[in-house]
Amino acid sequence: MDGRKWLRRIGVSVVGVLVFGLTLWATAALYFDLPFTPLRKPVAVGYMAGLSSALFFYRDRRGFLITVIGFVVVLVWWLSLTPSHTRNWQADVAEIPWAEVDGDRVTIHNVRNCDYRAEFEYTCHWETRTFNLSKLNGLDIALTYWGSPWIAHPIVSFDFGDEGHVPISIETRKVVGQGYSAILGFFRQYELIYIVSDERDVIRLRTNYRTGEEVYLFRTVATPQQARGLFLQYLDQINRLHNTPEWYNALTNNCTTNIAVAAAASQGERTRWDWRILLNGHSDQMMFDRHQLVTDGLPLADLKERVHINTVARLADKDPEFSARIREGRPGFSGQR
Predict the structure, then answer these.
(1) I need a surface site. Which of 1, 131, 153, 262 has the fewest CB within 10 A?
(2) Which whole number is the average pLDDT over 235-261?
(3) Are residues 200 and 255 in the same domain?
């Protein structure tokens, strides 16, 4: 077989994979995101059957063209779906935060402070808290794992010294009865929310009340100026979301991509993309390689063992000094409260 035949076969294979991928995505988009729930399955099945029939009868460029046209039609419809602030939200995401900045004085409204009795049994209080940017010392990052080592959830916690820590968690905003699904995260099922909270809420929820979640709390090398820049970027995004809702997307608009974009913007730099931003279970290795963590000279494996906080968090539980206790004796936190 000569080279041209091999190239033709490779080209046909690539087109086949592309056609399959476009058809599969469009079918899934119809199945998950069509507003009229009873029509989701029949419309999705009909779309898949129609495209399959076209490809069977037109085994040439016409079949590919029909597939592309079908995909474009679905994509245009899908992009027209608009997020909303007025839905039947779960109690823990019922309010969205917003902030006022007056010089060094920052006032944040709708800071979440939930009193947990169990993972799904809680009473949420929405508070207004004020902080002074001149007291911002640096920032920490908590990574939560719940199964796969490839996926984690990061929470950035800003250290305001004697004014406390301000953790901000970028999450999906779910309606009553809705759970999180990694597959649904690629479609238009969840709005995006920045939860500004208390560590006795957003971190203790994961260490003390959820089953099978492991939390690692790292100190970063960020200077007060760098922490200030990132914090203000967060506030800008929080206020933007307060005014204009956005869709969460597991690939493009999620907990880790937003941190990466905000961190770069705060320094006036372009985002340094890395495969570990998407497969963020390895973001600790990425930060370690970039010298962004305080390590006290430890290799990453030993550092992770030292910053694993589940046991001490359970002991601290409702202690008002929860934030101080989960940091005691850990790399990067000597002398901190």
Answers:
(1) 1
(2) 95
(3) yes
